[in-house]
């Protein structure tokens, strides 16, 4: 009994166990990580808003509906290689560091997006044109396989425990700013130069903008330092390897890490996949499919459709950090559960409003979808990294995230457009969102609350030395009370109820 009681005692925190974050470094980490996401989603915004135009440029022999499906098929193809990118970049980030891998993914994303602007059209080189577009999208998808998981991991490992939700929400703030910039640029081009000029040469301009954005992002990421959490883990692993520990040597291998992910953390992997499905089905439905749905399926003017979705993105941008801060106070689990339940309830009313036509009612419908989306966007970056311990965090998150995004998120525009085309039922997207809401609700139910707590496998992270001293003092006080409790139970094993106080 004595051994059992002693094992239950928590380790007393020492001053060196608590990390005091450096505010300037935290700001640089958040900015650099968010800028990479801005770059990634600038491309998505451009591609979503140019879907009809790119269909005419690269698939001119098809019908308008088939052109859209073909364009979204090329869009979805990039997601098929994302798990491969996750398998490469994720474990690599756990071995060599987060900062190095994030610099590589930044280069690849910017170069592949920039290259699309130079591609010849189908009228110039025939079938080779869509093939080259596919190659660019595959490179972009491969690099993105290590981007979001690495960026969330980087911010989470730099953020103080009590502000991880707020700081993590800035990553997805960058997501929607990038999408808004890309979609806004296409909207301005459409309004100023017209559809004919846009199809002829104007579609290249947004892709050319990606080059300078990528260089800025790369410069900022090269200036970053490795996260303090990873540095501590690296030192501990190096010490174990220097002692010739065969168990640690096996765990450090690529196969050892993958085996650990799927044998010891399979529950966390499934929860992660469910939450990622919820977020990304909602995300791609609104950002990538909705503009084409309103203009192509419902027959609304292209410019008004684009402006409505752009307004929705601005709503998300304005509210996302508020949701992130709220998750620090109320918890990640309540926000996810409330958002999932609301998605099930409001998906059909939102699409019924969008179908009504005009401006006011569709704007309300789009606003509802935007507020549902921000529930997941504002909490994902702080929730997902906390599911896994430090030594496998980047790899496990990359694999789980990208498998789910590839199978369900990135295919959302393709599946939704194909189902609407096949069934003739324009409410299919609402039903699709309801299914995602059910899966998200189940995943949220099994999610352990992590708000305000240290990351798994890491010590506490605080903002000031005073907070660190308070944590250490409280830990010693708790340890003293536990020691007293052990002593009472040893002396009076049958009368412990009499000595609780």
From TrEMBL:
Transmembrane segments: 65-89, 101-119, 125-149, 170-193, 205-222, 265-286, 306-323, 335-354, 360-382, 394-416, 428-447
Keyword line: Cell membrane, Membrane, Symport, Transmembrane, Transmembrane helix, Transport
Boundaries of every Major facilitator superfamily (MFS) profile domain copy: 29-452
CDD domains: MFS_ProP
InterPro entries per UniProt: H+-coupled_symporters, MFS_dom, MFS_sugar_transport-like, MFS_trans_sf, Sugar_transporter_CS
One protein family per Pfam: Sugar_tr
Subcellular location: Cell membrane
This protein's record includes keyword Transport: yes
Membrane topology: Multi-pass membrane protein
Name of protein: Glycine betaine/L-proline transporter ProP
Species per Swiss-Prot/TrEMBL record: Streptomyces glycanivorans
Lineage, highest ranks first: Bacteria, Bacillati, Actinomycetota, Actinomycetes, Kitasatosporales
Gene that produces this protein: proP
């Amino acid at each position: 009994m004595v051994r059992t009681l002693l094992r239950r005692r928590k380790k007393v925190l020492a001053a060196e166990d608590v990390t005091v974050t450096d505010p300037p470094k935290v700001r640089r980490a958040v900015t650099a990580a968010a800028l990479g996401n801005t770059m990634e989603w600038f491309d998505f915004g451009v591609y979503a808003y140019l879907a009809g135009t790119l269909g005419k440029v690269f698939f001119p022999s098809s019908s308008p509906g088939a052109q859209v499906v073909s364009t979204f098929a090329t869009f979805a193809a990039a997601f098929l290689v994302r798990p491969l990118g996750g398998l490469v970049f994720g474990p690599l980030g756990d071995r060599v560091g987060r900062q190095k891998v994030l610099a590589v993914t930044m280069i690849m994303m910017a170069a592949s997006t920039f290259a699309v602007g130079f591609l010849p059209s189908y009228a110039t080189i025939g079938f080779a044109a869509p093939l080259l577009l596919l190659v660019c999208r595959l490179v972009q998808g491969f690099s993105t396989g290590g981007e979001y998981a690495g960026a969330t991991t980087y911010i989470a490992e730099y953020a103080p425990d009590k502000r991880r939700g707020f700081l993590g929400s800035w990553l997805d703030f960058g997501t929607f700013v990038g999408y808004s910039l890309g979609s806004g640029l296409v909207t301005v081009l459409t309004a100023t130069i017209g559809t004919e000029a846009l199809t002829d040469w104007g579609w290249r301009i947004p892709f050319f903008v990606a080059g300078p954005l990528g260089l800025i992002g790369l410069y900022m990421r090269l200036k970053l330092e490795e996260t303090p959490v990873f540095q501590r883990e690296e030192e501990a692993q190096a010490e174990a390897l220097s002692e010739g520990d065969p168990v640690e040597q096996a765990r450090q291998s690529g196969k050892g890490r993958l085996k650990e992910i799927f044998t010891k953390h399979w529950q966390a992997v499934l929860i992660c996949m469910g939450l990622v499905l919820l977020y990304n089905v909602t995300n791609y439905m609104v950002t990538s499919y909705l503009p084409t749905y309103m203009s192509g399926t419902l027959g609304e003017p292209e410019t008004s459709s684009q402006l409505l979705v752009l307004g929705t993105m601005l709503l998300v941008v304005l509210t996302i950090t508020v949701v992130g801060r709220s998750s620090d106070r109320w918890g990640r689990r309540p926000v996810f559960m409330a958002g999932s339940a609301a998605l099930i309830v409001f998906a059909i009313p939102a699409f019924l409003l969008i179908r009504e036509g005009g401006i006011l009612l569709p704007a309300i419908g789009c606003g509802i979808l935007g507020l549902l989306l921000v529930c997941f966007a504002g909490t994902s970056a702080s929730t997902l990294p906390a599911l896994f311990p430090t030594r496998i965090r980047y790899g496990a998150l990359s694999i789980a995230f990208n498998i789910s995004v590839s199978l369900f998120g990135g295919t959302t525009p393709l599946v939704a457009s194909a189902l609407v085309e096949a069934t003739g039922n324009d409410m299919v997207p609402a039903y699709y969102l309801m299914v995602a809401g059910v899966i998200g609700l189940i995943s949220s139910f099994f999610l352990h609350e992590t708000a305000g707590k240290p990351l798994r496998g890491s010590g506490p992270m605080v903002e000031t030395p005073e907070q660190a001293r308070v944590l250490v003092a409280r830990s010693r006080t708790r340890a003293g009370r536990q020691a007293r409790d052990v002593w009472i139970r040893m002396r009076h094993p049958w009368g412990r109820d009499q000595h609780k106080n």
